[in-house]
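Supplementary Methods, section 5.1.

A reviewer requested that the exact input to the structure prediction be made available. We therefore reproduce it here, unchanged from the version used in the analyses.
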Amino acid sequence: MDELDELEEIEFEHAITSAGFGKFNIFHLLVCGAVYAVTALGVTVLSFVLPAAACDFEMSSTNKGVLSGAPMIGMLVGSYFWGCLADTKGRKIVLVYTLILDGICGIVSSAMPIYTLFLALRLCNGFLIAGAMGICFSYLGEFQATKYRETVLSWMELFWTIGLLWLPLIAWVVIPLDIQFGHFKSWNLFVAISSLPSLVIGIALLYFPESPKFLLEVGEPEAALRVLKRIYVMNSGKTETEYPVNSLRETEREYKYLQRHQSIRRLRIHRRKELSILLRTFWDQTKELCRPPNLKLTLLTCFLQVGILTSYYTLMMWFPELFDRFERYERTHPNETTSVCEVSEVRLENNIDCDNPIGEQVFVHTLIVGMACVPTSCWLLMCVRKLGAKFFLMFSLTIASISVIFLYYVTNSTQNLMLSCLFESMASLASSASYSVMVDLFPTNLRVMATSLALTVGRVGAVLGNMMFGYLIDIHCFVPIIIFATSLMCSAILCMFLPETGQESLG
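The structure derived from this sequence is encoded token-by-token as follows.
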């Protein structure tokens, strides 16, 4: 065997390429896509609870803003916590725990008859779902060879769209039902059903391996090789002995507090000394993100996520509420034109119907908004290798910004629906493209932590955006529209400074 062949045997990129692309990658994409779809349910489920539970919880617009912001506060706290654990203890284990606990917490919240208790549990849901959302892209991308990675990650946008479509379908079937067992009504059942997929996907993940790239990073090359052999067998139908790689080159990075050949993944949190090592490692890796050469990328991704999430998560949560307000206004003011701001500033006391809290048109419009994401998801899949994720980021953010500005000029619910579709499709595309880009920007030992830090900062904007929108929608509607449009356009400009991605193997 010549020297080149010997070198190639221990390169991770060569090893993951030798494992092939086949059944394993497809099943792995499906489960990671399901995780991302579940996060879409977790993030948007309250968009139907706001109008449906308005009477039960006696909520004002401000109360709705606080409730819609609660999961964002949980995600704000949880993002970096789970990111640190995922970069030290493993991607898979964090995904399993967060999804199963999220499902349990969601089911318990569905039975809460008191606003404050429901609010607290939805905050916990946000804390948990933040882990799954920040990790699933890295967990998927680390199983892919460079030639497939960008395309495979682009599939995640389609799964997010499936989640957005699945939610209004569940709501349309369940919420109109005439169900009441004490305080438990149809919207409570809707919350419970929406929580079940987290449990199912969390259990399904138990049958998938840990990321081989992560295992190699933390000093477990033998475990990484076993995973690669498993992938090879499933993809090729051959035996492990036929896998052409016998050893992997260990990472040159060292965890300064660990003994030689000790894996940080094996540290036990319940032991004080080992917990101390883990916490010091968290701090060292955080400092590494905040100094060159990572500092520039860290700042760019943080500001980028603020621009995207402030507007996207706020408007996504409030679209069903706005559709509901338009329907109630047009029902009582037939043949009259009105804008988003005018219909929001009209007091709707006489239109509140606690026996039928959400009109059928709201479900239809929300479903149409979700369907609007399908063409852009397919466009991303077909063209991402040619145009690059950076192009999609810049384009989608620019169009989303323009669509938000024009929301101020709509005169009826149809125009509002059309602009909502345009915004949702573009903002959703930008969100998924930004996650794909971040997988390539940072090395393995910082990848999830960097993504989580950017999402944490972005969710500060999402929390403030939801609360601000709930407060201003009835009195100064134009103000949040200008803020959202400006933040999106600033993010589009920032994308110019991002490097091109998808061309090199993962660090």
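The radius of gyration is 23 Å. These observations are discussed further in the main text.
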